Backbone:
DNA sequence: GCGACAG
DNA sequence: ATCTTGTCGC
């Protein structure tokens, strides 16, 4: 069975109607960041739960074979299983999800942050380092709106020498999303929960590669 | 045909 | 995302 681009796009169009764009959050204590790294065909999904004092509370990991290629606009079909699996592997509770990728700022208004949000039924924010879709219009000093067809689908924050793209994933407003992302920017190009997930995922993927090389080196003994 | 194109 | 050498700056 092979991946169908048309079916994937239709699924996004159908699910996009389920995204809630208003705040369904009245304060929070814990937030979880999601990211995926790769070791050849192995995807390493990591979820890092943090509190508001920059402490790591819990970590969840999910390693799976990834067959779906990266296709702009269809990233979720490649990374969702690892991300969602990692999220299911955390033991502690969390109130908000930060996803490394776009949310509403997507050609069908359903980026990976919306996939995660709708299927988790939790307030979710999409955070990316690069733009996927839409026009950047200056709204203020260091703040841009991402617009498509007269609709604001996201925001861009200029910080030091880089930018970060923020958009609604689910059950939270764009305004609140920006405030929360800002709170967790601690000197890295991504908010701390995602940054930590990225570091752990990359390290784990690197270990898998290393172990594979060791196995190759000693395979003559078998 | 050309440019854009999350991770 | 991953691969990968040298180079710039604190």
Residues:
């Amino acid at each position: 069975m092979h991946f169908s681009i048309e079916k994937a796009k239709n699924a996004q169009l159908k699910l996009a109607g389920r995204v809630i764009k208003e705040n369904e959050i009245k304060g929070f204590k814990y937030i979880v960041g999601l990211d995926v790294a790769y070791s050849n065909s192995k995807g390493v999904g990591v979820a890092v739960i943090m509190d508001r004092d920059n402490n790591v509370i819990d970590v969840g990991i999910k390693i799976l074979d990834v067959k779906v290629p990266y296709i702009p606009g269809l990233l979720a079909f490649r990374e969702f299983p690892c991300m969602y699996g990692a999220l299911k592997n955390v033991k502690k509770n969390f109130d908000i999800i930060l996803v490394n990728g776009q949310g509403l700022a997507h050609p069908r208004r359903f980026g990976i942050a919306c996939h995660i949000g709708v299927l988790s039924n939790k307030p979710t924010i999409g955070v990316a380092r690069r733009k996927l879709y839409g026009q950047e219009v200056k709204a203020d000093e260091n703040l841009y709106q991402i617009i498509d067809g007269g609709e604001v689908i996201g925001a861009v924050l200029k910080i030091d020498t880089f930018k970060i793209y923020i958009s609604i994933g689910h059950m939270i407003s764009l305004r609140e999303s920006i405030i929360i992302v800002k709170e967790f920017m601690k000197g890295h190009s991504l908010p701390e929960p995602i940054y930590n997930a990225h570091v752990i995922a990359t390290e784990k993927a690197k270990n898998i590669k290393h172990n594979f090389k060791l196995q190759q080196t000693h395979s003559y003994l078998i």
